[in-house]
Amino acid sequence: MAEGWWTYVVIIVAGFLATDIWRWLGVLIGHRLNEDSEALYWVRAVATSLVMAVTAKLIVFPTGTLANSPLWLRLAAAGIGFAVFLGTGKRVAVGVLVPIAILIAGLLFLQP
């Protein structure tokens, strides 16, 4: 049993070193950055493009339960969710919950 503990300690330490140190460095250095700088515009653009790439991958090449839904349902959920997101003043929670509700309703309705 004692041997199993060391595995978890190594995982926790390695996880901390790989992620949390960079977060702390970001906090320490970030307060000196100008929010309107070209560098931060670039960082926001890259972050947004990465999120959109993952979203597109989930829509076009789904895995798990999402793979059981037809493409038209996934596209409709994304489109309607985006429209509702914009229509409600860009509320992220609404933009996430509406497509999930559409997917759930569609999967329940399409079940044989």
From TrEMBL:
<keyword id="KW-0812">Transmembrane</keyword>
<keyword id="KW-0472">Membrane</keyword>
<feature type="transmembrane region" description="Helical">
    <location>
        <begin position="92"/>
        <end position="110"/>
    </location>
</feature>
<dbReference type="InterPro" id="IPR008407">
    <property type="entry name" value="Brnchd-chn_aa_trnsp_AzlD"/>
</dbReference>
<feature type="transmembrane region" description="Helical">
    <location>
        <begin position="6"/>
        <end position="29"/>
    </location>
</feature>
<feature type="transmembrane region" description="Helical">
    <location>
        <begin position="71"/>
        <end position="87"/>
    </location>
</feature>
<dbReference type="Pfam" id="PF05437">
    <property type="entry name" value="AzlD"/>
</dbReference>
<feature type="transmembrane region" description="Helical">
    <location>
        <begin position="41"/>
        <end position="59"/>
    </location>
</feature>
<keyword id="KW-1133">Transmembrane helix</keyword>
<protein>
    <recommendedName>
        <fullName>Branched-chain amino acid transport</fullName>
    </recommendedName>
</protein>
